[in-house]
Each structure stands twice: as structure tokens, then as C-alpha cells.
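Before going further, learn to read the protein records used in this course. A complete example follows; check for yourself that the lines match position by position.
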Amino acid sequence: MSAAALAKLLPTRCNVHLIESEAIGIVGVGEATLPHIRAFNERLGIDEAEFMATTRATFKLGIEFVNWARIGDSYIHPFGTFGRGTGEPDFHHYWLRLRQAGHDVPDLEDYSLACMMARLGRFDLPSRDPSELTSTFGYAYQFDATLFAPYLRRLAEGLGVRRTEGRIVGVDRDGESGDVTGLTLESGEEIGGDLFVDCSGFVSLLLGKTLGEPFQDWSKWLPNDRATAMPCRTETALTPYTGVIAMDSGWRWRIPLQNRTGNGYVYPSAFLSDDKAAEALIAAVEGEPIADPRVLRFTAGRRERSWVNNVVGVGLASGFLEPLESTSIYLIQAAITALIELFPDGSGSPVLRDEFNRLIDLEYDRIRDFLILHYHATERTDSEFWNYVRTMDVPDTLREKIELFRRRGRVVKYREGVFLDASWIAVYLGQRIIPEGHDMRADGPAAETLLRAMETFRAEVRGVAETMPDHLGHISRYCPMAA
């Protein structure tokens, strides 16, 4: 992703040399994404249907969370608005007003086109006309990451990127500045450069090992440090959403692709052994396994800085937050986008580097709070794991957000950051954080008028969703997987 983007978007500013080893392989288990990947792909000139066919992708309208607040609960975090997403106050305040007054109103999901489409298994491309209800949702992809990487490699090389196969065994540094000046490969070849983008994964070869940038460990809030992954044959519906099912110690993902379903169990080694996790995953998957479970090990957190000297850490080399909300590829995109916008001009000024680090730190810190919310806002008492996360101390930044929503149904608004109001609202309410009050501007309409208007809108949402093709049918016409 880094090589292709730099070559495409800064063709006159840099010559890109990609060094990678086939022997190391790809960290990919059937990848779920956020809608931002669409804009990133478009900037690279990637044709959507071709990309989806090549990577055996399906569409994703959101994430369904099952058994999180209580066993038996289910809610969807949609990629779209509640209501039409226009006007003030936000739609959920009208819903809260009626609920607080004792009216029997349906779940907030019923007023989200993205949620309704997901529940009905429907999909169509959104409208670009903001006056249309079908403009109120977005979508992402569920795809095979092991096929996306070579796809991007071909794209990058077509844009003039030079690729060298090999392992790095040595790093040279300037004795005075500390900058990295060159790399030595196992073959003996030496490769120099002015700026080094470290995409070496958890190893963090340049940023972590060579420059020694400290790592902030967030495992006290996000204790999961293992994932056991295993694909299986798809034997149920090809859902246009990712499934996240809470387990006794952690959670299980379900990512349906065109040719298989990706599964994994994310858990803390302090509460569950690898063998027990594999047994639980095998027992839970929907179809016949097509590979043995494999274990991934990680620690939640980030480097204190992602750009140090002339090294920029992208992806796992910079940090890692568990895949609960499909943020891994987004964080890669965010780093690449910030690097392109703040690309060094050779002056040596730290201002660009400092701004890059501010932006990346902000992304990690806000996603961290959003992930912690899912765990901490639970009522489950049935296992040691859920007792721990329910009662643990949380960052002050999250505690303040929760109390503001609990008091008045208000979502802290940011100019920067990935998750907007609807995301927080879905998780707050889905995790049974029910506000005591609402925005007083929602008291304007008479209750009966408001009830009729909301019921009319609810019927419109369902009616529009029901006219759409089913998810598999749309894929079959638009982007059937390549043979």
C-alpha cells in the first residue's frame, strides 16, 4: 500500500524501492475493512469490480456484535446514519425523547438504512444524491489480504516502483545524526535511501529495533494478546457485514468472502490457553475447516512516535490495536495519507514530522478508547475475563465520553478521527448505556406528530431495503470472483 501510494501520488518527488521477502509472508486472515479504503483505492486508480473479483471480496455494511452487553444481545454498528443524517439535533435525540416518555418505539436500528439492509441481507451501491435515502449509508469490503498484497505489488511495479526480493540483515546509520543511511540484504546487496518507510510488521526492524523507539503497552485496557485463525467453507448466508461474537474469554470474528469464511478467536493468554481457544473455535465455526488453526501473537499499543529521524513506521511497525473494529488497514491508510501530505522537503525541519506524529497518535488514542468501550460497557459476569474488563479502570478520556452520553445522549464530536457520531451511538446503546436525558431541541414537535413521522420513516427504510437485490445476487452481477 505504501509503495503504490507514494509512486502514484508523488511521482515527481520520490523514487520508490520496495524491499520484501516472500519467505516472511503476509499477516492476513480474511480482512475486514472500513469505508475509507474505497477512497484510498480510488486515489490509486483501482477499479472496484476488478479489485473485488481478484480478492474474492464481499461488501460490508457494518459489524454485528453478538452477546456483548448480555448473552443473547445483538446490535449492528452501521456504516451509515440513523435517520437521514441531516438537521439538528441528531435523530437519536428524538428517539430518546419518546423512549424516555414511555412510548414503545422500535430499536434505533430500524431507522438506519445500513442496518436494515444488513439484517435483510440486501445490497446496492449508494446514491450520490444527498436528497435520496440511499445516500445515507456507506460500505467497505471483506477480502482476502493474501490476494490484495500481490495485486498492489503489480500496481506499484506498473507505476515504476523497483522491487528487490530479500531479507534485511544489516542497517547502517549516520554516526552524527542517527539517520538510517542504508540497508544490507542477506545476498550482500547494499541499498541506500533518504527516507525509509518501515513496514516490517511486529518486528519493527527500523523504528523499534534500530532506533529504539519506546512502545506504549495498552494491554491493561485491551488484554487480548492472541488470535487463533482458521478459514472454513461457507454454509450459511453470505452476509454483507462482519460478525463479532463474544466468547467466554474474548470474541470470535466471522468474515464471509466469496469463496470461504474467515474465522478467528481473539483472546488473552492470561485467561485462555492456545489449545482451548483452538478447540472453541473449531466447535463454533459454521462449516468444514479448510486449514488448521494458526496462532498470532501481539500486544496492544503503539510506538511513542511513528516518525523518528528519517524512518516512518506504517502499520504494525508503528502499533497494533486488535481487529475488533477492523481498524488495522485504516491505520495503514491514515499513516500513508499523512506521509504524502507532509512529505519532507529536504529542509530537515521537524515541524512536518511532529505534525505527522500528532495525527497518528490521535488516531490510535481515539480508536483505543472506542475499543475499550465495547469491553468495559458490559453487564456480563459469567467469566473471569468479562469480570476483569467490566471492572477495570479506563482512560479519563473515555470515562468523560461515557458520562456525557449517559447524562444527555451527547457524542463528543471531533474534527479528526475515524469514528463519527453514528458509530459511538450504535455501540453506546448496543452496550446498554442508555441516556438519562436528551437534547432539549427534540422537544419541539408534538409527541403524536413525532411518532407518526418516525413510523413513516421506518416504513420507508424497510421499503427501500426490500427493493434492493440480495447481497450474493449483486456480487454475482457486479464482481464475481476470478477463476
